[in-house]
Amino acid sequence: MAIQRKKIAVVGAGFTGATTALMLAQKELGDVVLIDIPGLENPTKGKALDMLEASPVQGFDSNIIGTSSYEDAEGADVVIITAGIARKPGMSRDDLVNTNAGIMKSVCENVKKYCPDSYVIILSNPVDAMTYVAFNTLEFPKNRVIGQSGVLDTARYFTFISQELNVSIEDVHGFVLGGHGDDMVPLVRYTNVAGIPIDKLMPADRIEAIVKRTRTGGGEIVGLLGNGSAYYAPAASLVQMTEAILKDKKRVLPSIAFLEGEYGYDNLFIGVPTILGGDGIEKIIELELTEEEKTALDKSAESVRKVISVVDNG
Ligand SMILES: NC(=O)C1=CN([C@@H]2O[C@H](COP(=O)(O)OP(=O)(O)OC[C@H]3O[C@@H](n4cnc5c(N)ncnc54)[C@H](O)[C@@H]3O)[C@@H](O)[C@H]2O)C=CC1
Ligand SMILES: O=C([O-])CC(=O)C(=O)O
């Protein structure tokens, strides 16, 4: 049988979804199906066609279509869900929970029907709780339901470190653990520049300032944009996770994963280091944490549990 191109469905054709669709096509990771609600069918088709018309200039061969019909997504290998409302200045991500939980359920019912074998990556906020909603609706194995937060949070952390030290972004390593909220946990002890621990390169007060800025990185962009939230770096993060799966790269990346005892939590979706490859979350990497790190992670986990309880009781 002839080798088939991969198929990637992106649900939600707003700022993050449209940007993700274009970046996926530019990297030729597969053909892209961009889906939004029936009332936005024409704008969705228009965005997809506009992107496709960039392909002769940029030289990519991925096809991109816009649609409101999930039949067009049938058999997708990866489904990325960005559908939902975004916050505005003065709001927290958790304020979106009720509206986006309803949207997530209806989207996932369609994904379950038309893309039953897909790997699903969730972006919609509050993303830890939305990944939980998706998991319960899809009833897919846990390795195929993955939330995006840590790649983005870590990217912000690295950006600030590289700016502070005037070093290449390529040489900064480490990651952010926990929920995608203001109490996420950038793991300073595991952060280094080309192997040199970060505390050998920067005074403690500068590290603390970077940790704080990372935690509120989403809000910083919301404040600047005035009418929505970040989309370039979130899209880039989704593309990196998709690439890890479609190319079976076995990247070590933070993902929102379903925990069953790891890190001392049960029945909880939260950001942890994972191996992402051709079978989705192939492994959760469990690290030993200091008491201080575990206390910080417990606080973040408690925040996620509170939002999940809104969903469970809603
Ligand atoms: N986890 C993360 O790191 C990040 C999460 N986000 C979240 O992603 C979500 C999307 O953000 P943006 O793209 O900026 O918002 P946006 O408002 O630009 O786009 C959302 C799109 O979803 C569509 N939509 C709503 N209901 C739908 C349904 N039932 N089926 C299909 N499409 C539907 C809307 O029509 C709209 O086009 C928000 O909840 C935002 O908070 C954004 C950035 C980072
Ligand atoms: O801040 C928001 O609402 C969007 C988001 O999750 C981020 O950019 O980290």
From TrEMBL:
InterPro entries cross-referenced by the UniProt entry: L-lactate/malate_DH, Lactate/malate_DH_C, Lactate/malate_DH_N, Lactate_DH/Glyco_Ohase_4_C, Malate_DH_type3, NAD(P)-bd_dom_sf
Domain Lactate/malate dehydrogenase N-terminal stretches: 7-147
Residues at which NAD(+) binds: 12-17, 36, 100, 123-125
EC numbers, comma separated: 1.1.1.37
Residue stretches making up the Lactate/malate dehydrogenase C-terminal domain: 152-309
SUPFAM superfamilies per UniProt: LDH C-terminal domain-like, NAD(P)-binding Rossmann-fold domains
The protein's role, per its UniProt record: Catalyzes the reversible oxidation of malate to oxaloacetate.
Name the record gives this protein: Malate dehydrogenase
Organism: Chengkuizengella marina
Lineage, broadest ranks: Bacteria, Bacillati, Bacillota, Bacilli, Bacillales
